Amino acid sequence: QVQLVESGGGLVQAGGSLRLSCTASGGTFANRAMGWFRQAPGKEREFVAAIRWGGASTYYVDYADSVKGRFTISRDNAKNTAYLQMNSLKPEDTAVYYCASARTDWALPRGGYEYDYWGQGTQVTVSS
Question: Which is it for strands 115-118 and 95-102: parallel, antiparallel or unpaired?
C-alpha cells in the first residue's frame, strides 16, 4: 500500500525557516514527479513546488511565484524522500502543507488532479 508521510511542520516567527520532509513507502517513486501543495483556511489548495528526476544528478524543479526565491524543493531517491526547505517565511505561508506523487515522470504538473498519492498534511503556522 502506497503511503506518503509528511513531517517538519510547526510554529515559526516571520522570517524564520522550516524544512518539511515527505517519505514514501509501498512503491517506487524515483521516476515520479513529487509535488508540494498547501491549503490555507477558507482557501483552495494551491501548488507550491514540484521536482522530477532527470537521471544521474539532474533534477528539474518548478515553483509557484509566491515562493520562488524563498523555498527550495529537493529529493533523495535512495531514501524515497522529498523535502521542502522554506526560508524567509511570511504569515501568508500559513497553511497545511501536503506532499503528493504524480502520475507522470516527464513533467512537473501543477494541477492537483495530476497527482494520485497524497500525504496527510502537516501544519505550518507563521506568526507576525
Answer: antiparallel
pLDDT digits (tens, 9 = 90+) for 109-126: 999 999 999 999 999 999
Read off the amino acid at residue 42: G
| CA separation, residue 33 to residues 26, 55, 77, 80, 100 (Å) | 16, 12, 11, 12, 9
Cell of 60: 528539474
Q: Which residue has the cell 509557484?
A: 64
The span from the CA of 26 to the CA of 37, in Å, is: 21
Is the pLDDT score of 28 beyond 80?
Answer: no
Which of 48, 39, 43 lies closest to 96, judged by CA? 39
Q: Is the pLDDT of residue 82 over 90?
A: yes
In the numeric block, which cell numbers belong to residue 34? 513529487
